[in-house]
Amino acid sequence: MPPMSNLSKNMRVYHRYLGFFLAGIMAIYSISGIVLIFRETSVFKKEIHKVITVAPNLNIDAVGEAIKLKKLKVTEEVGDVIKFEQGTYNKTTGVADFKVKELPYFINKLTSFHKASTKQPLYYLNIFFGFSLLFFVVSSFWMFLPNTTIFKKGLYFTLAGFVLALILLLV
After folding, report:
1. Is residue 18 within 8 Å of residue 135, measured between CB atoms?
2. Which SS3 state, helix, strand or coil, does residue 44 take?
3. The pairing of beta strand 81-84 with beta strand 74-78
4. Please, what are the averages of pLDDT over each run of 10 residues along the chain (171 residues)?
5. DSSP per-residue codes, 112-145
6. pLDDT at site 1
7. What is the pLDDT of residue 159?
8. pTM for the model
């Protein structure tokens, strides 16, 4: 068996220790990713009753924006009270009384990892994590010598994973 080059040895060492370093964050990302699959359902969510005072005499779209509920639809209007699926809005007082389903605090924090944008300080972590995963992809090809059976089988698995990803993107 030919000796490994310094690049191969270094890639293996970096791969190993970066993997240990990122094990916790990878677990969190995987769990939050699974939770996000169910974001349009009520799975994991609990119902919360809210009473919020907003500006009086708003139209239903402005009420939805003010209480952070999308696509409010009026079901009934009785006097100054507008009823919608989740609750009511009093046009005179500006009081909105409604129920929403939200993720519990800790699960909501977990899912925020996936939704970070440049407006949040965590986006640097997301960039670092993305580049780390890219490094894992590249460095995994230095884990085994190119002329071994394991490496050749690994290339077939890589191709299969790439094809599966393409299929999932196109479906």
Report:
1. yes
2. coil
3. antiparallel
4. 75 88 86 88 93 93 91 91 94 95 89 82 84 89 87 92 93 88
5. HTTT--TTSTTHHHHHHHHHHHHHHHHHGGGSS-
6. 52
7. 94
8. 0.63
Taken in order 66, 39, 167, 145, the sign of the CA dihedral is positive
CB 123 within 8 A of CB 72: no
| C-alpha–C-alpha distance, residues 97 and 63, integer Å | 11
Helix, strand or coil, per DSSP, at residue 156: helix
| Sign of the CA dihedral with 135 first, then 137, 141, and 143 last | positive
Reduce the DSSP state of residue 164 to 3 states and report it: helix
Are 88 and 81 spatial neighbours (Cβ–Cβ below 8 Å)?
A: yes
Are residues 155 and 146 in contact, defined by beta-carbon separation less than 8 angstroms? no
Dihedrals phi, psi of 151, to nearest 5 degrees: -65, -45
DSSP-assigned letter for residue 38: T
Cβ-based burial of 35 (10 A; exposed 0-12, middle 13-18, buried ≥19): middle
pLDDT of residue 75: 93
DSSP class of residue 75 equals E
* Structure token digits, residue 105: 């605090």
